[in-house]
Every structure is written in C-alpha cells, then in structure tokens.
Amino acid sequence: MRFPLHDETTAPDAARPALEATRKNFGMIPNLERVMASAPALLQGYSQTWDLFDETSLTPVERQVVYLTANYENDCTYCVPWHSLLARKAKMPGEVIEALRSGAVLPDARLEALRGFTRSLIANRGKISQAERQAFFDAGYSETQALEVVLGLAVKLMSNYTNSIAGTPLDDAVQKLAWRKPTIPMRAP
After folding, report:
1. Sorted alphabetically, which Pfam families does this protein's record hold (predicted)?
2. pLDDT averaged over every residue in the chain
3. CA pair distance 164, 74, nearest whole angstrom
4. DSSP assignment, residue 175?
5. What are the distances in angstroms from CA 105 to CA 5, 68, 151?
C-alpha cells in the first residue's frame, strides 16, 4: 500500500499526539487519520480545524449538512458513510440524511438553504451570486455563519482530497453505510 495506515507506534513522532487524541476522543483511529499521519502537519491542521468548526454557531445538524454536502459534491466514498453515522448521532432526521446521500432537495427549507449555499460555494469556487447569498440570509443565517461554512469546507477539503489521493479504505465501523454517488439518468431530448 502506497499510503500506510499508521497508528501511534508507526507514525512519525510529530503525528503521534494527534493520533493518541483521536483514539481517546473517538474510541478508535479512523483510516483517514491513519493516512494523514504520514504528513503530521496535515493531520494536526485537520484535527484543529475540525475542533474549531465544532465551536461555531452552526448546530451539530447544520455542521453535518455542510460536511455531507461537501462529501457528496466531492464524491468522497470514504466520508459520506462516516458523516451519515455522525449525522445520526447529531439526531438529524433520517429523511434528511437520505436526501443528502442521494443529492435530493432537503425536506427542511432552512437546511436546504444551507445545503444550496454550501453546494454553490463548492461548484463556483467561492464565487456565488448575490441571489444565492441572499437566499442563505433569507433562511435566517447570518454573515458569521456564511464564514463558518467556509471553515467547514476547509475541513472537507483536507479530508476529501486526502481520501481521493490515497484511496483510503473504508473502516469496518461504517461498512454498512457504504456509499457510491448516484448517477442521474440523462433526459431524452
């Protein structure tokens, strides 16, 4: 395997504290962090940015909407299962989780505005229209929360890109939630 799955005994010294903290806080070390340990600065940046996103004014469910939207848009077969589990733990309704996994419109208008804003940021490389920005604000989100979405996307850039490059194997803990991006059938002319 080109990208080794490190643990606290095989990782570079600089990565060991982050791996130990992950095991302590999460009860295990997911394969993503094991891969990231080859680049200790990446692992540390990812862990710190994750923690900072947890401190934002977005609710746990809203944070998972940002994460799952990015995972879907970036076709991250590793992250969608994990965030499906984390969304359940955050008490996100099952129909919202399934809509996020399938790319469908969310049944909750406020969460759909968040999903649309997040999706637009990704699709347009941050250059969204005034109308898209206003739809986000009209749903009750603030300027601070718009910037907090950017922080969440920074977390996902690190994880989604790492998984794409490394082909990170899915952990046994989420195998039952395995995911492939659905194909959208083309319409006849």
Report:
1. CMD (PF02627)
2. 95
3. 9
4. G
5. 36, 13, 23
Cα–Cα distance for residue pair 160/174, rounded to 1 Å: 16
Q: How far apart are the first and last CA of the chain?
A: 46
Structure tokens at 107: 């049944």
What is the mean predicted confidence (pLDDT) over 3-7? 95
pLDDT value, residue 2: 87
| Cα-trace Rg, the chain | 17
DSSP string, 97-142: HHHHHHTPPPSSHHHHHHHHHHHHHHHTTT---HHHHHHHHHTT--
How far apart, in whole angstroms, are the C-alpha atoms of residue 131 and residue 52? 29
* Superfamily covering domain 59-160+171-177: AhpD-like (1.20.1290.10)
Secondary structure E strands in 13-56: none
